[in-house]
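Complex 512.
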Amino acid sequence: MDSLLFIFFFLLTPLALLLLMTMKRRRKRPLPPGPPGYPILGNMLMMDQLTHRGLMRLAEKYGGLLHLRLGFLHAVTVSTPEMARQVLQLHDNIFANRPATIAIKYLTYDRADMAFAHNGQFWSQMRKLCVMKLFSRKRAESWASVRDEVDRTLRSVASEPPLASVNIGELVFNLTKNITFRAAFGSQSHQEQDQFILILQEFSKLFGAFNVGDFIPWLRWLDMQGINKRLKRARVSLDSFIDRIIDDHMKNRKDPDAGDTDMVDDMLAFLDESPTRNAKEPADDLQASLKLTRNHIKAIIMDVMFGGTETVASAIEWTMAELMRSPSEMARVQQELAEVVGLDRKVHETDLEKLHYLKCAIKETLRLHPPIPLLLHETAEDCEVAGYFIPVRSRVMINVFAIGRDPASWTNPNSFKPSRFAPGGDAEGIDFKGNFFELLPFGSGRRSCPGMQLGLYALELAVAQLLHCFTWELPDEMKPSELDMGDVFGLTAPKAVRLCAVPTPRLTCSLL
Ligand code: HEM
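Predicted structure with protoporphyrin IX containing FE bound:
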């Protein structure tokens, strides 16, 4: 009896008090508004509405900060510039973690990459490595692969028979895939590239697969969909593929200052088993403190492949599609190209800075079609935003797509009007570097895109060359207004129907 009393007073009473205090605190600060859900399942039956477009519609009804319960998980969506400022600037240290599904944890070697690492020391060192070495401006400028691959794409278009329609979507996806593959691994055989694409495709399917265990943890062990077996197989294929490439690179070490290194070369200096790892010179702070394993290298390479391929490809395709749907805007961009570059040569990188209207058209495309429409973050602790309670480990979805079309921030938000960013336009001076919360295609703050410079370089050069070297007509006498502008939702939001168009050479010089 005595021991029962002891348990009651010394263990249960404090626990009950704690519970009461938490409930009292919670009652003062409600969760953000949201649609009602069912017991245990919460809003899981609304899964098909959790796309950028579905969430934008829900935000119109419930507001810029919206709460959903997905099984045992709290989810919050952010759909206005002001709410985005609150989570990405005011409370950025709380909102800078990343959520990860079972599949993502396994395929990133338990968050050994940068994109899925939680905000902390490891992530900040990885970020330094990426910003200073792997994705630096110097690398962008010396990225011969961008120039070479864009030229190769132009040659392939120029060699099409007259009046043949070109699938621009496929063309530019191949282009960006080749660019990132060469930047990551250097030149490899086509056979190796095809093998790697198969691995990437399986990773992509597994990243997007719905897994009940992510929402109801006690159902994890069941593996009803057989996902665990597929995850193991996918990782074994990646291991054997990249281990071979790392071994080859270790055998043929390159001078890091030679200027022709790829990302694997650059990361070898940080590999724990590397012979140069403990060399006396040069040992900057990062090299002394950051130790990478092969798993880190594999995980970072996957970040680059996923972060840098489809994003850039979909931005090129959307820019071309928006311009083809607005012939007067297309004419203005091509007129600028003719004046700045001249019709007797291709575009040089140094021309890009002078192509102001082309840049406006790209900015307007990124506003209407941000390649990553939902930014996924996770809270590191309980907090309060705009008077609402957001629990720790909530999944946060920042709806950049809805924000870019916010009627309170943009006039005619759904129209394609590049001139809004030009001198005298009502959005003049707004850029996408993360200071203007109404335009966030690259995010803002500590988790914003570290590959922005590289991405923009490939995007601007590809669009400029395609529009300068050719005029484009829609096939089969299709009218611009008939162009399908629907998108599909996944890790990115590319065009649902690939853009096809008929090119006619525009320059007096040969492209072949
Ligand atoms: C048009 C091109 C691109 C767009 C629109 C884009 C957009 C984004 C966005 C929106 C984020 C997430 C921001 C957040 O969660 O708050 C992101 C993160 C990231 N991007 Fe990009 N990106 C592009 C190109 C690239 C390229 C070329 C690379 C690599 C070479 C890259 C690598 C990454 C990585 C590694 C992250 C994760 C950063 C972190 O979690 O700390 N991206 N990008």
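The two ends are 94 Å apart (CA to CA).
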